């Protein structure tokens, strides 16, 4: 009889792709008054070894809770996308101790720069 080898997870993360928000970020007064559409994506590095076996939501990162934290940060106006991304990164690390590292991308879908593009983004990687 052949004995099965136990699988070893070498890296794992939970991703939230293109969360859509209407927010009031920007340096220009018009951006802060009228607002615009933003996309936020993140990859939270977490150890998924336990939930892979247990199939229990209590053993993993609840992405609905992560979404709520991101939504609260997006609701606070900032001049710079860099500041927004930094706030989201700090909030996730502070609120979810199981997150070891995090990659956050914030995209302004229609930046006021007179260019035909699909958006301007800032991306940061943070860790404990």
Report on this structure.
The protein has helices at 29-34, 49-54, 63-74, 81-95, and strands at residues 13-23, 36-45, 101-108, 120-127. With 128 residues, the chain is α+β, with helices and mostly antiparallel strands. A four-stranded antiparallel beta sheet has the order 1-2-3-4. α3 (63-74) packs antiparallel against α4 (81-95). The longest helix has 15 residues, at 81-95. The protein is elongated and about 70 Å long.
Question: What is the topology?
Answer:
Layout: E1 13-23, H1 29-34, E2 36-45, H2 49-54, H3 63-74, H4 81-95, E3 101-108, E4 120-127
Antiparallel strand pairs: 1-2, 2-3, 3-4
Helix pairs in contact: 3-4
Question: Which radius of gyration do the C-alpha atoms yield?
Answer: 18 Å
The largest β sheet comes out as: 4 strands, antiparallel
Q: Approximately how much beta-strand content do the residues carry?
A: 25-35%
Order of helices and strands: EHEHHHEE
Q: Given the C-alpha coordinates, what overall shape results?
A: elongated
Helical percent range? 25-40%
Low-confidence stretches: none
Strand order of the largest sheet: 1-2-3-4
Mean pLDDT: 94
Structural class: alpha+beta
Helix tally equals 4
Total strand count, please? 4
Quote the distance from N terminus to C terminus. 45 Å
């Amino acid at each position: 009889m052949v004995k099965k080898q136990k699988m070893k997870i070498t890296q794992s993360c939970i991703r939230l792709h293109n969360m859509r928000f209407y927010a009031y970020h920007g340096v220009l007064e018009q951006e802060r008054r009228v607002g615009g559409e933003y996309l936020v994506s993140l990859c939270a590095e977490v150890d998924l070894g336990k939930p892979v076996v247990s199939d229990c939501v209590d053993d993993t990162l609840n992405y609905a809770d992560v979404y709520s934290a991101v939504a609260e940060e997006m609701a606070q106006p900032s001049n710079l996308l860099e500041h927004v991304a930094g706030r989201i990164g700090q909030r996730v690390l502070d609120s979810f101790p199981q997150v070891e590292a995090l990659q956050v991308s914030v995209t302004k879908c229609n930046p006021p720069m007179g260019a035909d593009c699909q958006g301007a983004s800032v991306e940061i990687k943070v860790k404990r």
